[in-house]
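Entry for the shared binder. Reason: the reviewer on the internal report wants the predicted structure included alongside the sequence.
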Amino acid sequence: MNASEFMADPDSCVLHVAMGDSSGHDTSSLVGAFCAAYLKSKTGDSSTPEGKKIAHVPVLAIPREDFNLVPQLTELVQMAGLSEVDSSMIYTDDMDLSACEVEVVGRNVDSSLYKSKVTPLVEAMLAEDESMVDAGVATLLGGCILIDTSNLKAGRVDEDGNALPDKATERDMAAFSALVPFLPMSGSEMYEALNDAKTNYDWWMSLSSLEMLRYDYQEDASNGRTFGISAVLLPFWDVMEKPMLYKASCEFMSEKKLDTLIVMAYSFEPRMSRQILFLSDNYEKLKELTQAFARVGGHAQMDLVYADMDVEECLGTKNCEAFQQFNVAFSRKQVLPLVVEAYREAGVSLVPERDADGFYSDPTGKLQVPV
């Protein structure tokens, strides 16, 4: 029994749900739910001891309206020729899942063995019955492996010959190799198309301010205060020109119960650059935090300077602060723990130390903290 049949007659069966391990617009989590349910439908029980049918169905951990906010997923669906996936799927806002048996896909995956959370699914399918892997399934899973491993990056060295962290393990590469005969194009062509879908400028500009903030979002509450970071693949000036950005930010902070919202803007032309925008509804708390972040970022050699754009005028509020980040190696994964540390620092020393010229004594010598 599939999702459509279940939705048509939900009382006729018992529902076994497969859902990704992270809520949000993570392509691998969403595809993992789809493929795990498919695997269980082929290998799991089809009925209960009482004779009721068992429906193994995927549930995407996003609202239905957010399907088009996952550009890499929609690109993969088109590559796989699965045009009806959207209408046939169940989403978190379609039904109450509290009484369902839920399998969380990707939880507790050993990161030393797998960099992609869908690789274990590939291995399980191939071990059970190779005929389960057709062109559509292979495209979905193979695309996710490419996304998760940045096109199977492994065995790389820097310009000094030092080993760089692998983004693909031997098992990731073996799983992808097994899928290659089914793929509609080469791995390089597929990865390029998926990357273009995620970074497409026109797509990003088509999003509303709220959609932009929701798309690639992560939060942390380890310091007793909850803050969130939205990653945006747009130049900073385009982010700042989004209609009603501060109003949307306040709505988003209220919805998520955030102390602070951080927007990390990325641009790729003419060269890679990053900017960090802090937003809050409390001016004093925000200044304490951003000054502490300046101190922490200086120690970490993020190579920060305060943005030269008048963000207060652009947003129509003083409850904001922005940095230009010259060391682009610091992605959200590295910035998030620095913000956690900044919260701790804010309770100890709120104002970074400055020399006689007004510059904070960081290794770069570029971080100027306003009085």
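Summary line for the report: Confidence is low (pLDDT under 50) at residues 348-355, 357-371.
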